[in-house]
Design goal:
By secondary structure, the chain is α+β, with helices and mostly antiparallel strands. Helices cover 50% and strands 21% of the residues. The protein contains 7 helices and 8 strands, in the order H-H-E-E-E-H-H-H-E-H-E-E-H-E-E. Helix 3 packs across helix 7, helix 5 packs parallel to helix 6 and helix 6 runs antiparallel to helix 7. It is elongated. It starts with a helix and ends with a strand.
Length: 299
């Protein structure tokens, strides 16, 4: 057995010489067991085996027992799990790319349809001041109007910048960042919003703070776009070593068993799980929607 393995050449030379050394080491009591897995495929099927070599010691005989165990079914199951994992990773990546593209389109639309129009109006109004026949009082009115448009554009750009890069929160606390975000989404006062915030959460590390901010940003967008709600409740607190955030709206809700989770909820779930946290979704038709995320504080 050993001599045949040592004499092997070609494609299997490396594996056969490994087997020969393993059996020899067991016979010489260098190791207590030698295990080696290998493929032995045929044109009609794929097979894998596990070789186990153990010492045989007795009064009359000494040597080794060599067993070859068919592990084909186990390997096939492992391959299927790996393929399923890869498929799931592809779906996650696709969802993230779609979300990023959606965000880019939203920003592009906001810049084109809002900020661009405001600046164009400012240019038009200020251009009218060139009229030599225009009275000074009227010219001042046009200048003031143009300044108002420009200030509006500055405010719109400020809101966009907060959505894109709130990591430092402009040296504000997490609580202040949350309050500002909620105010930004409620400029027309369509929601009755309550925020219950545990000030200890202001001391969380920066990555967790940003993650919580992004989660709330995503869910508030969902509420504004889909819920038809008029009330939003946000609670942030430390509970047993983790930070818990609850966001509730009294909108139309949905059946969580039959409804397909959109990209927004999928992103929230992935963000929570990326910090070893737990994501809970509660909703029923006509009873609003509640999400709860719990992230270990010690991360």
């Amino acid at each position: 057995y050993i001599e045949i393995s040592k004499a092997a050449d070609g494609q299997d030379e490396k594996n056969e010489k490994t087997v020969a050394r393993g059996i020899d080491d067991v016979l010489k009591n260098k190791i207590k067991e030698f295990v080696f897995e290998y493929a032995c495929h045929s044109p009609g099927s794929q097979r894998w085996y596990r070789m186990v070599v153990t010492p045989l010691e007795g009064k009359e005989y000494s040597g080794a027992v060599v067993m070859h165990v068919d592990i084909s079914e186990l390997r096939q199951l492992e391959q299927e799990r790996m393929e399923n994992k890869m498929d799931e990773q592809k779906r996650i990546t696709q969802a993230m790319l779609k979300a990023q593209e959606k965000e880019r389109n939203s920003i592009g639309t906001e810049l084109h349809d809002n900020v661009n129009q405001i600046l164009a109006s400012s240019l038009l109004v200020l251009g009218m001041v060139k009229n030599e026949k225009m009275k000074i009082k009227k010219a001042v009115e046009f200048i003031d109007t143009g300044k108002g448009y420009i200030n509006n554009a500055i405010e719109e750009l400020r809101k966009l910048s907060h959505e894109l890069a709130p990591a430092s929160f402009d040296n504000r606390s997490l609580k202040d960042a949350f309050m500002n975000l909620l105010m930004t989404f409620n400029l027309n006062k369509q929601f009755d919003i309550t925020l219950d915030f545990d000030d200890q959460c202001n001391t969380l590390n920066g990555e967790i703070q940003l993650n919580l901010y992004r989660i709330m940003q995503e869910q508030i967008k969902n509420i504004v776009k889909y819920s038809a709600a008029n009330k939003i409740e946000v609670d942030v607190a430390q509970v047993n070593g983790s930070v818990n955030m609850r966001i509730f709206d009294n909108g139309k809700g949905f059946n969580v068993k039959t409804a397909k989770n959109g990209i927004g909820l999928s992103n929230i779930k992935k963000r929570t799980e990326s910090f070893s946290g737990k994501f809970i979704l509660n909703s029923e038709p006509g009873k609003g929607c509640e999400i709860i995320v719990a992230i270990p504080r010690g991360l």
